[in-house]
Amino acid sequence: MSSPCCTSAVLVVFMALAVSVGAEESKERSCDVIGDENSESQMERALLKKLEPLSQMRFNVTVEKSKTENYIYHFRVCREVNSTLHDFGGLVQTDRQNGRTTVIGRINETQVFNGSDWIMLIYKGGDSYGSHCSGEKRRAVIMISCKRGVTASSFTVISEEREKEQECFYLFEMDSSVACPAEDSHLSVGSILLITLASLIAVYIIGGFLYQRLVVGAKGMEQFPHFAFWQDLGNLVADGCDFVCRSKPRNVPAAYRGVGDDQLGEESEERDDHLLPM
């Protein structure tokens, strides 16, 4: 009886190990800043978190320098270009003629810093140069510039510096909104006062309307809060406007006056006698 139980327990343990190993393999590696984990600054962690929206995107650019130099550059932000190789390659060069790949920079040797509207991402630890740069390891420098409204675009190769004895590098650039500073939306004092005043007026009208209608039971224009007061105020304003803005004195007599009976004299009865026939 004990043998089947032991066999089942062993199978369960092996299955658990297989699942854990598969989960570890399926999880993509991310950027590891050069140095001990405890030495990473808060700024570096914040910048890597800021670049996280670009981690699921892939960027490719083709460069044809000559008939013998024709390359494709593959780039990912803080992710491996080919996670099945487990080589930490974050920026990889592929020769289009023979298909040979060269790791330009690895994500486990990352440097990152920024300015007011740009982020500089550096992958070190690439494959070694042959006859150039004293055989040192390659390095990729990616300049990410601010461009609002664009998640990521315009990934291009700027240059390759390999004529020096040391500190050679490949320079790339791209545009992204993640490199842009946060927009400050400051309201002026006047705007704040206007918003406050408009809010108070809205609360007064809506609250007063509901009170008059639901509690007092008013109908029609009487639902407006303090309707009689505002009506009288409107009349007073109209009278004041009439007093200030009228162009003639109030007591100026009218331009036309009728003729009264007292102004008419007695008519002569004989004024038309000469017109009568004889």
Structure overview:
This protein is an alpha+beta fold and 278 residues long. Helix content is 29%, strand content 24%. It has 4 helices and 8 strands. An 8-stranded mixed β-sheet has the order 1-2-3-4-5-6-8-7, with helices on one face. A hairpin with a 5-residue loop joins strand 3 and strand 4. About 3% of the residues have low confidence.
Number of strands: 8
SSE string:
HHEEEEEEEEHH
The unreliable regions are 18-25
Strand content: 15-25%
Helix content percent band: 25-40%
Task: Count the DSSP helices.
Answer: 4
Distance between the termini: 166 Å
Average pLDDT: 82
- Which structural class matches the secondary elements? alpha+beta
Radius of gyration: 44 Å
Largest sheet, in brief, is: 8 strands, mixed
What's the arrangement of strands in the largest beta sheet?
A: 1-2-3-4-5-6-8-7
Dominant shape: elongated
Can I get a quick summary?
The protein has four helices and eight strands. The protein has 278 residues and is of the alpha+beta class.
Question: What characteristics describe this protein?
Answer:
about 280 residues; alpha+beta; eight-stranded mixed β-sheet; 4 helices; about 25% strand
Spell out the blueprint of helices and strands.
Blueprint (H helix, E strand, L loop, with lengths): L1 H25 L15 H9 L7 E7 L5 E7 L12 E7 L5 E14 L3 E8 L14 E7 L6 E9 L7 E8 L12 H28 L10 H19 L33
Parallel strand pairs: 6-8
Antiparallel strand pairs: 1-2, 2-3, 3-4, 4-5, 5-6, 7-8
